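Q:
Got a chain?
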Amino acid sequence: MLCIRYVVANQKGGVGKTTTVVNVATAMAIAGRRVLVVDVDPQANATSHLGVPQDLPRNAYRVLIGEQSAVEACVPTEVENLWLLPAHPDLYGITLELPQVEDWPYRLQRALQGLIPRFDFIWIDTPPSLGILTINAMAAARFLVVPIQCEYFALEGLATLLRAMDRIHRAYNPELELHAIVLTMYDERTNLAYQVRQELTTHFPDRVMKTVIPRNVRLAEAPSFGRPVFLYDIRSRGAQAYLELAKELLNHEAHRTGSWAGRPDA
């Protein structure tokens, strides 16, 4: 099986981007896949969510500036089969340093080349912006996954993101394509959530995931304990939703490649 590289992006913060990266990656690792999470968000939320300190001397910042290899910087997590390339607050300065390098859009892409043979899936978490780090992440990925909260202006924000994706596709990464739209913090009791879901499904019938992620207190609590929700409360609605989302993505990949994807809850 070839390594599948996902980038999870949305220029709006607070939509469940990091929660999606950490928990889908964990579910795939539980299913026996070899999975790497790459955290290029200076806030290092995915790093903290996986219980890894933000001040490790080997990190994504040093990889991007060429001081370390990605192979050297990866660390194991508490979850078997799940590894992390941790973020560092120094990534805040990358917008000043990286543009001075001629090949700056390809830094992450080239850094990950040595890791591709080691993993089945790579999940890249990005900052809530369309800046240099997100461009690097999109240039390094095959598929874009967009978490969207069902609220006003969701479609407008998605349109902006897709225009950026199209530019990156044309300029830096002709393989990049929209793979999945994931509805997060979904409240089925509200008409707005239903209306946004219907509108997104109308515009992107083959991209909106059937699995929706509900508002769930356990999902909100798990990061403060430095654990994926499956290690915090696997019986919660949030955990079960992410298991189903991982299963849906794995089955989609199985149909695309003709290989058996297994069960996330196996």
